[in-house]
Amino acid sequence: MTSTPGTTPVPDLEQRLDGVLGRIESAAERAGRDPREILVLLATKTREPGEIAAAVRAVHERGWRVAVGENRAQEIAKHEDPALAALESELGVPRHFIGRLQRNKARDVVDFASVIHGVDRDGIIDALARRAELAGTQRDVLVQVNTSGEESKGGFVPSADVLADAVTRIRATGVLRPVGLMTIGAHTSEESAVRSSLRLLRTLRDELADPQIVELSMGMSGDLEIAVEEGASIVRPGSAVFGPREG
Ligand SMILES: *Cc1c(COP(=O)(O)O)cnc(C)c1O
């Protein structure tokens, strides 16, 4: 604990991280899953490169699979930092993009992220594919599904037919490889609503029955346990690791 006289001690990064990994581990055990199969994708939002690198190293040292999740294309340039570059080359830690995708940012996203979550409409598939072709590269993508029906959220409607069409379109690009589904759980304190939104993602994946669509990216700081119980293969904790965001 780091503490200043007269204030409540605040847990430091490693303590918060151990708390998060402990939550994932217990949920996995309850669900009869091997916790180390789960990829811990740290949602970095506006954090500083040094802080991100410290968290990634700590997760890696504890024997977990870890990746860096960038939320904002504007942050990418800032994250072209030696501390983060070293993580990729030394530890083989990949970088994923998990933010809202914009067509005019397709270039930045394709250039730095090996996995792109949140592919949520046809226009973005075309924009990413064009950039990947120009760059002579291929990228793994996850199709975002709006499992809660909340208007503020992006994503395809939760229909296996609609998703199958999106997967076909992605695959037809030849440069984007669909590997799974992604969602943001229902924004409510009602556990049953959160659980149904996350369970729906798994049901849709199973209905698709596509041997390449295996990943389920779901679970943030507030709903990690539910996500793991419902089959998440990638969880995306942010504030529970880095502490509450300022401003
Ligand atoms: C911010 C964000 C997260 C992390 O959210 P926390 O509540 O801070 O854990 C995960 N996924 C996406 C897509 C996000 O935008």
TrEMBL record:
InterPro entries the UniProt entry points to: Ala_racemase_N (IPR001608), PLP-binding_barrel (IPR029066), PyrdxlP_homeostasis (IPR011078)
Superkingdom as given in the UniProt entry: Bacteria
Cofactors, names only: pyridoxal 5'-phosphate
GO molecular function, one term: pyridoxal phosphate binding
Ranges of residues in domain Alanine racemase N-terminal: 98-244
Entry-annotated residues carrying N6-(pyridoxal phosphate)lysine: 45
Keywords assigned by UniProt, alphabetized: Pyridoxal phosphate
Family: Belongs to the pyridoxal phosphate-binding protein YggS/PROSC family.
NCBIfam families (UniProt xref): YggS family pyridoxal phosphate-dependent enzyme
Function description: Pyridoxal 5'-phosphate (PLP)-binding protein, which is involved in PLP homeostasis.
Protein's UniProt name: Pyridoxal phosphate homeostasis protein
Species of the source: Brachybacterium endophyticum
Upper lineage: Bacteria, Bacillati, Actinomycetota, Actinomycetes, Micrococcales
